[in-house]
Amino acid sequence: MKNYNNFAIPAYNGTVRTFPRLAVASDEEPENQDVAEPADPPQPEATMPPPREGNPRGTIQFLTIVGQVEGHVVLPPTNKATKYEHVIPQLVMCAENTEVDGLLILLNTMGGDVEAGLALSELIAHLGKPTVSLVLGGGHSIGVPLAVAANYSFIAPSATMTIHPIRMNGTIVGAPQTYDYFQKTQERVEDFITAHSRISNERLKKLMMDATQLAQDVGTILIGEEAVQEGLIDSVGGLHDAMEKLYGLIGK
Q: Residue 127: which CATH number?
């Protein structure tokens, strides 16, 4: 088809009306017609933040041990407890994770199950990465091995640590073998504490058997600086001191 020029159509009143040129589709290519290329769509501005860099001093993982260390027997729901089956996987993952450079243990525990506490203490002592512990509030009974298991230990000035021999409540078999087992378990705790602190075995036993400090039991309560003087804890300090020490161990 062709493009027609202006043409006229007679109106009903006898006048002639002229219509402009109509553009009709044609198979022929137009001559000397510039074809505008489509413009590129506008590119959105970069809104993603730059990648976050890691801490140049190292990455620290925190572990809290609070309340009572729960063993094989489930404690009542009214007791605040730290379950060893929850903490053991955390320690294993900390040792396996290449992005973690050190472990900071925060303690505020009244003690609890001896075997569960020793199991956690052994994992901390042989984690393979720098570890620092901080006793806040209290680190009593089996909390003492948990505190000294780290490479370096701190205690808050107002925190306390109670040292006493192991006990068992409930029905027991009154036989010599029962007391022999108690003695062996006591030796396990003493050997671990003396191996990971500066206190001697003789001094530790003397503190455990002191009958002048506790009203209804034997043992010794150490407050802040006293625990450092006895050789159980390395230094008195707080969270900032513990983190700075751990960063220093990571840097080495």
A: 3.90.226.10
